[in-house]
Amino acid sequence: MNLFEELESLKEQVDLYARKHQEQEEELSEMTGEYLKSLQAGQVLIQENKWLWQQVETQQNLIGKYLKMIKRLKQLLLLPN
Length: 81
Prior knowledge:
With 81 residues, the protein is mostly helical. The chain is 94% helix and 0% strand. It is built from 1 helix and no strands.
């Protein structure tokens, strides 16, 4: 194999490596984009979950207040006139 053939072979190897590297970069970029999308979706779900728990707490507080009012009304109704 002469020097020209060796150089040509090395050039082909470098080109092949460069193509594989480019494909890997594209694949990694795509995977990163998908990961970021799923991360954003997860953050949205977390925010929605926080909001729902706030609603549950609000409802629990209202129920507690209504139960106290009912208890007080029962006491008032049972008082002798």
